[in-house]
Model the fold of this input.
Amino acid sequence: MLDRHASNNQVGELPAINLLQADAVLTAAVQQWTNPAQQKALHYQGEWLAQPATRELAALADQHPPQHERYNRWGERVDLVHFHGAWHELMAGLRERELISLPYSSTGPGGWLTWAAGLYLHGQVDAASLCPSIMTTAAIPVLQQEPALFQTLRSGLYSTEYDASDQPMGAKRSLMVGMGMTEKQGGSDLRANTTRAQPHGPAGRGEWYSLEGHKWFFSAPTSDAHLVLAQTAEGPSCFFVPRWRDDGTRNAIRILRLKDKLGNRANASSEVEFVGAAGCLVGEPGRGIPTILQMATFSRLACVIGSTAILRQTLVQAIHHARRRRAFGKALVDQPLMRQVLADMALESEAASWLMVRLARAFEAADSSSEMVWTRVLMPAAKFWICKRAVEFAGEALEVWGGDGYIETGPMARWFREAPVNSVWEGSGNVICLDILRAMGREAEAVMAWLDVQRTLADGLPPLQAQIDDLRATLRGPAAALEPAARRIARQLIVIAQAGLMRELAPAEVAEAFVQSRFQGSGGWVIGDGAVYDFDLAG
Done:
C-alpha cells in the first residue's frame, strides 16, 4: 500500500559531532594559544553540547519561558521567578565548566581564549543562558575595586557548583550578578536616570545607601545581586544591590513584570522598582557611569562572541540542510547559486571567528600598549559590525531552509529571533559608533600605527590597500564629518581587521576570496553577491 506520508526528502537533525572538532578555525586557535588542560575541557564541552539531549534542553527552555510569581498563597510579596528545569541544566553546564570566572580564576595564559571559546561553543546550542553568566563575569572586575566587599563574594563568584536557590548570599554555594542601568525616560542616556540613593549613615565608597526609583531593564532579576546606577549628591553612582539583606529579609526590590521579548525568551528580563532597597556604593561617588561601563566593556566582547556563535550555528544548519535536501533533481548544495551563497556565508563565519579569537587574546594582554587599539577601538567596532551581520546572516540561513525555516518546530526560527539581541544589548548601533569615535580620538596615534600594520599585511591586494587609504583620509578629514560617517568607519575598521587576520591565519585562497568579496561590488552586505567561489561544501 502506498505510504502517502513517507518523509523521503527531509533533512533530519544535526549529527552529534563534537562542536570543537567540527570547527577548524577554533581547533587551530585553541591548539596554538591554550594549554592541554584547557583543550581537554573544551573537547568535553563540545561533546556535551553536540548531544541531541543537550539541544533539546535549549528548545525546551525557549518553549517554556520563566514565570513571575508576585505573591504567595498567603498574600506575601515574594517576587519569585520560576524557570523550566532545562534552563537550570544549561546554567549548570556553564557553571561547572568554570565559564563564569575563568578569565579571573585561571592561572597562566589562555584563560580568556578558553572562556571565549567555551561561550562560543555554548552559544551555538543556547544563547539565552549566556546572558546571566556573562553579566556575572563582567561584574567581577568592577567588584574587585572594593576589596572588602569582593572578599565576601569571591568564593561564590568563582564557584563551579550551580546553585539556583533563592536565599541570602551567605547560604549559597555560588553567586550570580546582574545589571540595572537603563530607565524608561532615558534609555542609553544614563545621566537622565532619576533613581536616587541616600546614605544610611556616612557617605562614600563601601558605604550603604537606600535606593528609591526604577529600572526599565533589570536583567536576570533572580540574580543574587545587581550592579545598579543611582543618583547621589555627587552625581550618578554605582551600587551593589543584593536580592536579600544581611538580616535574612528580602531587599526592597519589586519586580513589576517580566519582559515579553522577541527572542532570548528562556532568560528573564524585568522591570523593577526600588522602595528603599539597600545598596553598597562601588567606586567613587559621582563616577558611577564609567564604573559600571567597565562591566559593559566585557559584556560587549561577549556580544561579539554570542553573535559569532549564531553565525557558526546558522551556517552549520544551512549547510546541513543543503547537503540533504534535493530540488530539481539534485542536492541544493550542488546548485551553483546556492553553493555561492553558502560559500559566502562560510567566509563571513570564518572571518568573524578569527576576529573573536584575536579580541579574546587582546583582552588577555589588555595592559599591553600594543593591544590598546584592539581592546578600546576594534572591540566596540566588532560589537557593532558582527552583531549587525548576525541578523542578516540568520535571515539568509533561514531562507536556505525555505518554508521549513519559518516554522517554530524547526531550528531556524529560534536563531532568527535570537539574532538581534546582541545589536541592542550594551548599546545599539549609533551609541556604539559614537563610543568608537571617542576612543579613536583618545588613541589617534595608535590607530594610525595600526593602519600602517594593516597596510603592510595588505601587500599585493590593491582593493584592501585602497580601503585602508580611504579610511585614513576620512580620519584625517574635518572633525565635523566624522559623526555622520561613524557607521562606515566602524565597518571599514572591522573588515580591514578581518582581512588582515585572514591574510595572516587562513589559507591563501580563502583570504583572497574574502578580500575580493568584501572590497568590491556590494562589499559583502548582500550575501552571495561577490566573488565567485569554488569551495567544496558537499563533503
The longest strand covers residues 269-282. The two ends are 36 Å apart (CA to CA). The chain has a mean pLDDT of 93. Residues 180 and 537 are 45 Å apart (CA to CA).
